[in-house]
Amino acid sequence: MEHLAEMAANLCGIIATRGAMDFKEQLKSSVDIASVVGEYVRLRKSGTQRYMGLCPFHTEKKPSFTVQVVHQLYKCFSCGAGGDVFKFVMEIEGISFYEAMKLLAERYGIPMPKRSLVADEDSKLREAVFQMHELAQDSFRASLKGPAGEAPRSYLVRRGMVPETAEQFGLGYSERSGRTLLRLFEQHQFTASQIEQSGLVRKREDGSFYDNFRNRLMFPIHNESGKIIGFGGRALSPDDNPKYLNSPETPIYRKSFVLYNLHRAKEAIRKEDRVILVEGYMDAIGVTAAGFRAVVASCGTSLTPEQVKAVKRHSQRIVVNFDPDAPGANAAERSINLLLEEGLQVRIMELDGDLDPDEYCKERGAAAYQERLDKAKGYFYWLADRARSKYDMHTSEGIVSVLKSLMPAVQRISDKLERMAIANDVAGYIGVDRGMVLDSFRKAVAERHEKAFERPRVEIRADERVLLNAVLGEPEISSELIRELRPIGAMDRLSSRRIFHVVFALDAAGTPLTFDEVNARLEETDRNLLAEAVLREDVEVSREEALAAVESIRRSQAQNQRVELKARIKESERGGRWEEALHLMEELQQLERTSRERR
Predict the structure, then answer these.
(1) How remote is the C-alpha of 485 from its chain's centroid?
(2) Fewest C-beta atoms under 10 Å: which of 21, 152, 160, 305?
(3) What is the CB neighbour count within 10 angstroms for residue 276?
(4) Whole-angstrom Cα distance, residue 22 to residue 74?
(5) Contact criterion met (CB below 8 Å) for 277 and 151
(6) Cis-peptide, bond into residue 242, ω within 30° of zero
(7) Backbone angles phi, psi at 390, to 5 degrees
(8) What pLDDT, on a 0 to 100 scale, did the predictor assign at position 20?
């Protein structure tokens, strides 16, 4: 009986896997990979069926990341990252295959089969945690609108926030009781383990649970897809510490990767090709409500390299608008180095009157904020101003101290001409000799040659490139081409020979000839070669061009045969085997006649 049960379970798994694969292909054919990738990466069209952008998986200044629409694939020709739309979503969101499939199905309004897909345990846990966050959000919003929400509503009025803005940003209230969410989760039959890992409750030493957030104004935090993954809670009582309490790390929330409001702001960021970075939730909300939609916040934590990469995927131009107090200025200075390391163009926006961005928009208005935004300084001028305020510029020691304070930023500029231009600007700005500034820069920055991350380009013949594109991209002529190519012995001399062996084997087995099917059966070297031939450039192949490429391969074979026959003739003559040499010469003549006839 146990054996039968095991067989039944295995059969169910096979059926579920087949169902998943069938649905995968259906979903994949319904999804435009350029549209999906374009939600995370700023793409530009570089061909009829190709898009390019900066790779989201490594740091680069020149685009080497390609999206190929015909084959529905992406490939970075620098770091090697590549795959289909599911692989991209899995990598960029840090989720499983099942979750990527579910995310795309929901986004495109395609219903998921209920019985044919089986999620792994990690996916099931994350799904449960997502559900608990949705339930928590509904509960928080209801509490803010209800009798218990009078105090947080009064706080929002004092901060000048209208109910429509609170609704737009999903603000809520966590009640004092400490068991509101716990009871809600238990009613929905989540397990104790799932509840504990949600980050929304805490566990006492005696094993009992209580709500993590109590008597706080709640700000939902979303991932880039718009799903709630955590919360920030602002204390409403002066006795509650800390002032802001954020969700801990959970299976769906890694705080160093997340920027507040990015899911709302990314469209505006791309349209304006600029992002405004502020420090906290209220600043992001206040500036957005004033009409500036390209705003994100670092959620009250120090900016991280991962957050910078998330911004860079949408724009390389950033305006830092932190609070005008000393901690805000120090945080801005720390952020500059991170932003420069990722190659962003950085400006610093300063507000007067000791007002933070939210207060400034409310007290001075959108026009005043826009004026400050337009006058945002280049980061070097801002750094120079900070340095001049600290040291006595009337002394040589003070000037040297200013120059030294600018060195960390200088060292992050890899381009020699850019460094020289900045040296000129700095010299004029701080009122010292240009030669002194250049000398300081030279000492701080040894001439360095930026190492290109791009992998060496794989060499492949033009006729090979044409034939691979024709066989994989032109189904109406692929069978004809394969029949012509099979008997040509020169195929075994090509750099793409192993790729063509796979093509021939798939054709013989009646398997559809797609990039995916071929790529899946190759070793890494040949995968890179196939990507180089098919994905790097747009290649549209006519039947005439493809047949001409076949003839080119045949001529290669004839040339190889000629070279081989001539070598054998010489060897026979040296050995005195005249009859053998005569026979080989006849073969050579026949080969040359056949070649002339083909031409």
Answers:
(1) 40
(2) 21
(3) 28
(4) 22
(5) no
(6) yes
(7) -95, -25
(8) 57
- Residue 267 is part of which domain span? 262-375
112 part of a folded domain: no
**pLDDT higher than threshold 50 for residue 15:** no
Q: What is the dihedral of CA 140, 141, 142, 146, to 10 degrees?
A: 100
CATH number at residue 501: 1.10.860
Q: Report the distance separating Cα 211 and Cα 143, nearest Å.
A: 15
Report whether 287 contacts 357 (CB < 8 A).
Answer: yes
Residue 325 lies in a domain: yes
Does some domain include residue 450? no
CA distance 3 to 6: 5
- Which of 107, 139, 154 lies at the terminal end of a domain, its last residue? 107
∠ CA 539-526-63 to the nearest 5 degrees? 55
**Tokens matching residue 330:** 């120090």
Please give the average per-residue pLDDT across 210-217, as a whole number. 96
45-59, 322-336, 564-578: range with lowest mean pLDDT: 564-578
Across 240-244, 266-270, 566-570, which has the greatest mean pLDDT?
Answer: 266-270
pLDDT of 274 reads 97
Q: Which one-letter amino acid corresponds to residue 424?
A: N
Find where tokens 């033009």 sit. Answer: 462
Same domain, 203 and 227: yes
CA atoms within 13 A on the CB side of 582: 4
Mean pLDDT of 112-116: 65
Structure tokens belonging to residue 431: 């009122």
Whether residue 472 is predicted with pLDDT greater than 60 in this model: the reply is yes
Instruction: Quickly state the pLDDT bin for 595 (edges 50, 70, 90).
Output: low
Residue 334, helix vs strand vs coil:
helix
**Shared domain check, 236 and 142:** yes
Centroid of chain to Cα 87: 12
pLDDT score at 447 = 45
| Same-domain check for residues 417 and 347 | no
Average pLDDT, the chain: 86
Residue by residue, DSSP assigns 562-599 as: HHHHHHHHHHHHHTT-HHHHHHHHHHHHHHHHHHHHH-
59 touches 342 (CB < 8 A): yes
Using CA atoms in the order 244, 247, 248, 254, what is the torsion angle rounded to 10 degrees? -110
Count of structural domains within the chain: 5
Give a yes or no: residue 113 inside a domain: no
Q: Is-contact 228 234, C-beta < 8 A?
A: no
User: Which among 81, 89, 35 is positioned nearest to 58, based on CA atoms?
Assistant: 81
pLDDT digit string (tens) for 278-297? 999 999 999 999 999 999 99
Count of beta carbons in the 10 Å neighbourhood of residue 140 = 28
Helix 2-30 with 85-93: angle, nearest 10 deg: 100
Mean pLDDT of 542-551: 88
List Cα–Cα distances, 521 to 70, 447, 494, 499, 533, in angstroms.
Answer: 20, 45, 18, 9, 16
CATH of the domain at 18: 3.90.580.10
Q: Count of residues for the chain?
A: 599
Q: Which amino acid type is present at position 166? A: A
**Cα–Cα distance measured from residue 106 to residue 103, given in angstroms and rounded to the nearest whole number:** 5
One domain, residues 291 and 356 = yes
User: pTM score, two decimals?
Assistant: 0.79
pLDDT tops 80 at residue 143: yes
